[in-house]
Queue: 2 jobs
Job 1
Amino acid sequence: MRFVLDFEKQVVDLENKIWALRESAKIGDIDVTSEILKMQRKVDNILTQLYKSLTPWQKTQVARHPERPKFTDYLNHIFTDFVELSGDRLFADDEAIIGGLARINDIPCVVIGQEKGHDTESRLKHNFGMARPEGYRKAQRLLALANRFALPVFTFIDTPGACPDAGAEERGIATALAECIALSLQIDSICISTIIGEGGSGGAIALATSDYVLMLEHSIYSVISPEGCASILWKDDTKAALTSEFQKLTAQDLLSLRAIDSIVKEPVGGAHRNKTKACEAVKNELLTFHKMAIRNKAASRTKSRRQRFKAIGDEFILK
């Protein structure tokens, strides 16, 4: 059964009518093409207007949409010759983070991403994209490998945050996140990150410390979730919609604050309505920014990356 967001109900009713028309045409051999095209144009117009004026809370809902393309969708569509590299060589393999060697348009690279899963079974397997220390140590191993062989790194962020359970704390989740960020600031490889859904807390920053950070149009990126923020400020997570208004977590807010470099336009009605088109848009943007990155020498690139993240704090304070 399709998941429907509250503000999309009027559109879904029209889409259901289109589906019913198509089914009746199959049975009765009736030509309803013109009627379907008319209704589809109406759907597209409504979706265009709806998605132009989404509130931060509505964008949060879109970013968390269960049918939104996940990392493995982008991995399968954008990259070829993927060879997964597992484990952190210390404790275990964390399936919340998937990574390995691949090619993008015949360019050898390292790709790392947070995977939420597509159904109940896979969501449990990937722990809803919430990685434990071993996941971030696996990421460090892949970053070091990329640096050794001068391979570009493409990371994909989609997580509510790092795993907060007792085991993760016992095995040093804070240290793993800090070390991942520190290594990202040191390596000479080109690093390009894309926030495809949720970019939550240090769990997101650990994989988004890059030369360029891209965000899908209706994704979010914040130091804390709206619910978490509401719980701290008012001891009431039902005020999440209110806190999202001033968190500056949308792609549009973050571009104005220069915390990201580009907004990747999504298909009409969000990435969940056309996964193939969303993947193509991300691929084109990655290739564009890769061309920009290779113009810079490794030393200047690393220096710029450090200065960039130091400047973000100043930008937020000034704003």
Note: Residues 60-318 form a domain with the 2-enoyl-CoA Hydratase; Chain A, domain 1 fold (CATH 3.90.226.10).
Job 2
Amino acid sequence: MRPTPRAETFPVNTPAASQVFTTVLSQGPLARLEVARRAGLSPAAVTKAVRPLIEAGYLVEDADEAARPALGRPANLVRVDGGRALFIGVKVTGDEIIGVLTDLCCRIRVARHVPLPDRAPKVVLASIADLVKELLAEADGAQARTQDQDPVPVLGLGIAVSGDVDRGEGTVRYSPFLEWRDVPLAELAAMTTGLPVTVDNDVRALTVAEQWFGAGAGLSDFAVVTVGAGIGCGLVVHGRVVAGAHGVAGEIGHVTVDPAGRLCHCGNRGCVEAIAGEAAIVRQIREATGVELADAAEAVALAHRGVAGAREVYARAGEAIGRGIATVANLLGPERVIISGEGLAAYDLFAEQIREAFVAAAFGSAAQCDVLTRPLPFEEWARGAAATAIQSFIRADV
């Protein structure tokens, strides 16, 4: 198997060069003049940034035959060579680990799911190390089959965990699903895998992927709201993912929408998550119907069968989510809110209520925000972790 430590660094480290590369990465292929316009830079600055990136193989230029003028040569488009480098992303849940191997454009090449027998940090680290070895072996095997002369380097590992995560320190301060406190995950994972490691909150990681490679590409202000076991929110403001002074920006799951409502696990009453989180929905449907439900899938099935009381619970959940989204729109005025997460299996049960509550609670032109539903499997959360590794490799200011 290949050696895993990173053998190279990104060839440029100026803010302008990073801006040029990320613009091409998320919105390309683009002509140089268009890169300059979108990045807010001069053509000369773009040319200066592009040259070493082309020399190092991170960018390539292709002739744009469709834009060929009547006379002369066709214009050249700059694009990222996705095959120039590989990255690994890992999403840790309460009962499994999902890993993906991606290229530099964050396209998934291989995806793997492995069960998590124990949530203790040592067990999780061992499972991550085994999964990384498996993905590296897959990468080597694929290159051997295509007879590549030189192995494509794996330049980073991203790990996404739910809860309070300090990306700068690489520490999981608190993860309720894993029952972790103050785990220096980045340091430990780097020691066990030999790779540079980025650790981030899972919703923020998903937001990075949406910003660079998904429905947020090209937008300066948007939000990602995730519905499932918890209600999460990632925020992009003026082109940057916002973590806040204490790393917990975007916690709309703990916005109070009913001060006299149910007690939330955070200690407050009437939080969005206390009404619309999967555990809360299951509990409320049990109370309303008297049916013993094992999990959220059974709750969805019961509501789809039209059982009295079950649909009402989902309607209240939709209203709470809509009010939470309106709070985000009122405070930040995003161009778009992307709703995702495993809870979208029930989206048809509360979509109307989300929209109605959002429109009712959004102030003025905030109601014009584009609310987009985007179902994403757990592999996409792991892809988000890979996106944070790509981001750390490219930019020194994150």
Note: The domain at 15-80 is CATH 1.10.10.10 (Arc Repressor Mutant, subunit A).
